[in-house]
Every structure is written in C-alpha cells, then in structure tokens.
Specification:
Length: 502
C-alpha cells in the first residue's frame, strides 16, 4: 500500500493525486481565480478582503511594473516585511513573473541582512522599514538595487509576456537556513517543490474553498509562507493575515472571520491555551502545529481547553512539508504522523537520521555544490533530524544530528551566537545551548568561560544587540570556571546543558 494513502479522503486513490499537474504555482492559483473571481482571497486590517479577480488584477499590475523596471525571470527579489495584503500581492506578482523570491526575517540586523544580500545578489528588495532598505543598498555595493515598499510604487507597464510561464523546475524561492552546518545558505525551492507541498496539504487537510485561515505567522519562513498563502491560494480558500501574534487578536480574528483554520508554532498554541478565551477555538475545523515539537501534554491540554485535537506536522526549509498526522484516523500526540502525499521517508540504518525524497524536496543550495552534495544520499535528503517509527509507521522525532536550537519556532545556530559573544573581553570561550522552556520550547542560554561575571551580562547583551536578531540573543548568560571538555579540548555540549539543569 502507498504509505501515504492514510491521508486520502474516502473515495480517493493514490493515482488520483496529481501534485504537479498545474505545472507551476501561479497556474494552480490563476485556475482558481478564473473559476470564481468573486471569491475572497486575502485580508488584512488595511485593505479588507481582496477578491480573486482583484488579486489577479493587482498581481498582474505589479508584475508589469517589475518588468518595466527591468526585472527579468531568474532575477532575485528580497522580501522582508510584516505580513500584509500588499506583501502577498508583491510575492505572488514576483512568482507570476518568474522572479526568485528571497524571504528575509524582519528581525535581522544589518550584519544578517548583508549576508543574504551578498550571497543571493537580489536586483530588488521589498521592505517596510527604511533602515532595512539602507542595509540592503549598502550590502549591494556597486550593483544596482531597486528598493521598494510593499505597495511596489513604480510606473505601470504592460503585463509581461512571460506571466505564469515558469517551468516546474524553475527556482521560485531562495530561503536561507544554516541547514546542518556552517553559515546560512540559500535553499533553492522550485515552483514544483512549492506546488507539490501545497497540493499535498490541501488533500491531506481537506482544505477547500470554504476554509478561512487566520494566519499570525510571519511570511519569511516556509511555515507562514509555503503553508499559509500558498496552500490557501492552491485550495481556492481565504486567509486573514495578522501582522504579528497576540492571543486576543487571534481570538478576535477567528470570530470576525468565522475562521475554520489556524496554524501555529507550539509557543503560539501554548499561549492560546493559557488564555481564558481558549474555548473560542472550538469553532475551528482544524488547528495545526509545527516547526518545533509539540509537547504531548500541550496536545492534550488543547483538546481539553480548546476542543481541538491538533494535527502536528513536520517540515523543513529544504523540503517544505514532509509528514503530518492524518485528518481522519488517529492524531497521535508525541508523533508527527505519516509521510504526506508524494513523500518517501526512511531512517538511516546506522544513525536513524530521517531521510526524505519526493517532489517537495529541493534540488540544492544556492551556489553551494559541496553543501548540497553533503546533504544528499543519492536522491534522499538528509534532514539532520533523528527519528523512530511506531509499528504502524507514525514518525517520532527523537533528536537532532545538527547543532540547532528551536526557540518559539525560530532556528538559532549556536555557532553564530558563540562567534559574536566570544568577541567580548569578559569571555574567553562560550557554549550556547538550548534549555527546555515552557514558553519558547527551548531557551537560548550562554555558558561562558573567562574573566567576566554576572555584572558583565548587560554589556555582553549590548554587544549581541548590535549583531544578532533579538530571538537569537541569550536569555541568560552564566560564567563558569571551566567549560566541560573532552580529551581533545572540545566543549561537550550535552554536559553544558546538564550543568545548567544541575
Ligand atoms: C520573539 N522573541 C523571541 C522569539 N520571538 N525570543 C526567542 N525566541 C523567539 N521565537 C523576542 C522578542 O524579540 C522580544 O525581545 C522578546 O523575545 C519577547 O517577545 P514576545 O513579545 O514574547 O514575542 P512575540 O513577538 O510574541 O513572538 C513570539 C512568537 C514569534 C512565537 C509569535 O517568535 C513567532 O512568530 N514565531 C514563529 C516562528 C516561525 O514562523 N517559524 C517557522 C519556521 S519554518 P526583546 O529583546 O525585544 O525583548 C520551519 C519549517 C516548519 O521551521 O516545519 O515549519
Ligand atoms: P527550518 O530549518 O527552519 O525549516 O527548521 C526545520 C527543523 O524544524 C526541522 O529539521 C526539525 O528539526 C524542526 N521541526 C519542524 N517541525 C517539527 C515538529 N513538528 N517537531 C519537531 N521538530 C520539528
């Protein structure tokens, strides 16, 4: 039996699933818009609802402006702004135009933005904060750079002849991630990767035109972007965007829009569950959690307080979504479920590392053939996560082979933080670890060796505040006489974490 058949609705066979039939994302979307031009698509507090016909018009117009400004298929366009209708219009217009979107975290400081700009060499950037525009310009040096606001205020032009013409394998996104090692590298996702994942989710989660999603996730990661607007538009459904997350705002938006769906990271779900309004979520048809482990106790608490048996699923920047608990059948706490339609999964025989392949899996990192080669075993992608399979195929994520802390759904790479902190005179060496935390899942903590002490913590954090986005900075710094090391002098991270617990 096809392992993912458990995700299909009654009456649907694996052969009926056509993940790449539309050819590219844009054509999957426009087919929906053509079928019902009056259907509400995207909403924000400023623009209200945009109908499918309006979304078609506006994205065609923005595509025309980008073309007249000289942008051509294959050019990169950096997008870094809070979620809004304008931002989604710019994103959709860019993909319709064959441009390659580089989504960039809005919390990044100049150093972090500069790395992305120097590496991806975008021809244009859409930002909603002036300073970010200046950082992009500074990092692009002599290369021409068009810095735009989310409304893409440029002279109009004719809609380009190449509209919606991208091939399935053409790049659509370059999403930065540190993957298993080293400095952030761009995962190049094709139209086919994004389309296959969005189509798989619409089938597995029974996502239809009747659904209204409230989305408070940022649009610069695959959870917010590749699941939120991509899935919504493939399903011909509707999404109400929120520029940030606050529990009361979510409850209000769910009520106002009579929402059926909410997707969040565990930190969001735990804050929602803690509210005395939690019961208001009972009206949702489906709640989904991902990007970090959902504690089995939280899964149960949500069932009790919000009437929601969440679906937990597992994804990655390089693969979009891989595995999900089933819509029908058991949603098993502590597991991420079964491979999604199109996805093959196996565990490495000696390490139990999770390997995946399928139309959702990227072809490689931007201009990094070595890193690409290292992350594949033939056509199987090495996730860096360690798994275990229940007898009936449900996947549990039991560890990570990569050095990574996931705090509130954001990835923090200890090495990057350590390199910044080590520059402070109160620190000779430092180990950054993730410590279990009720709100963040894992909290970033630095354990330092050197002449400093608690009185230096503010100065170290002030240094970190010039180099690192706020979510990467340690919430706590402690000094120890000696970091635990092995015979070769290498710090033993597991012992550092134990030291903090003890
Ligand atoms: C914000 N802060 C964080 C943080 N988010 N610190 C640690 N971890 C985080 N995740 C900082 C703030 O900058 C602030 O710092 C302080 O913590 C308090 O902020 P807050 O007001 O409590 O945070 P809030 O704005 O409410 O943000 C929490 C959050 C946010 C959970 C809403 O972190 C978030 O949107 N997370 C989602 C991440 C996401 O989209 N991940 C998907 C990755 S894709 P200061 O210094 O200013 O006080 C992926 C693939 C897949 O992984 O499978 O999905
Ligand atoms: P990113 O590189 O930001 O895409 O993060 C991907 C990583 O997030 C994965 O490799 C996992 O380690 C982690 N992740 C995503 N979803 C889950 C989940 N449901 N449970 C545990 N870890 C998850």
């Amino acid at each position: 039996m096809t392992p993912w058949a458990a995700h299909l609705p009654p009456g649907m066979a694996p052969a009926d699933v056509d993940l790449l039939g539309a050819g590219n994302l844009a054509r999957a979307w426009t087919a929906r818009w053509d079928a019902d031009g009056s259907h509400p698509t995207i909403h924000d507090g400023q623009s209200g609802w945009l109908s499918a016909a309006e979304l078609e018009d506006r994205t065609r117009a923005v595509a025309g402006r980008l073309a007249v400004a000289g942008l051509e298929p294959g050019d990169r366009i950096l997008l870094s702004a809070a979620a809004s209708v304008d931002l989604v219009v710019a994103h959709v217009a860019a993909l319709r135009s064959g441009l390659v979107v580089v989504p960039t975290n809005t919390a990044y400081l100049e150093r972090e933005v500069a790395h992305v700009v120097r590496d991806a060499r975008p021809a244009a950037a859409v930002v909603d904060v002036d300073a970010r525009g200046r950082w992009v310009e500074a990092a692009s040096g002599e290369r021409p750079m068009l810095v735009l606001g989310p409304s893409v205020d440029l002279p109009d032009g004719r809609s380009p002849t190449h509209l919606d013409a991208a091939d399935t394998d053409d790049p659509a996104l370059i999403a930065y991630t540190s993957g298993t090692t080293g400095s952030p590298k761009g995962a190049v996702l094709s139209h086919g990767n994004l389309l296959a994942s969005a189509e798989a989710l619409t089938v597995a989660w029974r996502w239809t035109a009747e659904d209204r999603l409230v989305l408070a996730l940022p649009l610069f990661h695959l959870h917010g972007l590749g699941v939120g607007p991509h899935g919504t538009l493939v399903a011909g459904a509707s999404v109400a965007l929120r520029p940030s997350f606050a529990p009361d705002d979510v409850f209000d938006a769910v009520a106002t829009h009579d929402a059926t769906l909410f997707f969040g990271v565990p930190t969001m779900w735990s804050r929602l569950a803690a509210s005395d309004r939690a019961g208001e979520l009972a009206r949702l048809r489906l709640g989904v959690s991902g990007s970090a482990p959902l504690a089995a106790e939280l899964h149960r608490a949500l069932a009790d307080r919000c009437g929601q048996q969440l679906i937990e699923r597992y994804g990655m920047t390089e693969t979009v979504m891989n595995v999900s608990n089933p819509y029908d059948g058991e949603r098993r706490p502590g597991t991420v479920g079964l491979p999604l339609p199109g996805v093959d999964l196996r565990l490495d025989g000696s390490t139990d590392e999770i390997l995946v392949r399928g139309p959702n899996v990227f072809a490689g990192y931007w201009e990094r053939p070595d890193a690409t080669a290292e992350s594949f075993d033939g056509d199987w992608f090495r996730t860096g996560d360690v798994g275990a399979l229940d007898d009936d195929g449900y996947l549990r994520i039991v560890g990570r082979r990569k050095e990574l802390i996931i705090s509130g759904g954001f990835n923090v790479y200890p090495r990057e933080v350590e390199d910044v902190l080590r520059a402070h005179p109160s620190i000779d060496d430092v180990a950054v670890v993730g410590v279990p935390h009720p709100d963040w899942g894992e909290q970033v903590v630095a354990v330092a060796e050197g002449p400093g002490g608690p009185g230096d913590a503010d100065a170290v954090l002030a240094l970190a505040a010039t180099q690192l986005a706020a979510y990467k900075r340690p919430k706590r710094i402690v000094w120890v006489d000696d970091l635990p090391r092995n015979a070769l002098g290498k710090v033993i991270k597991a012992d550092v974490a134990r030291l903090l617990r003890g």
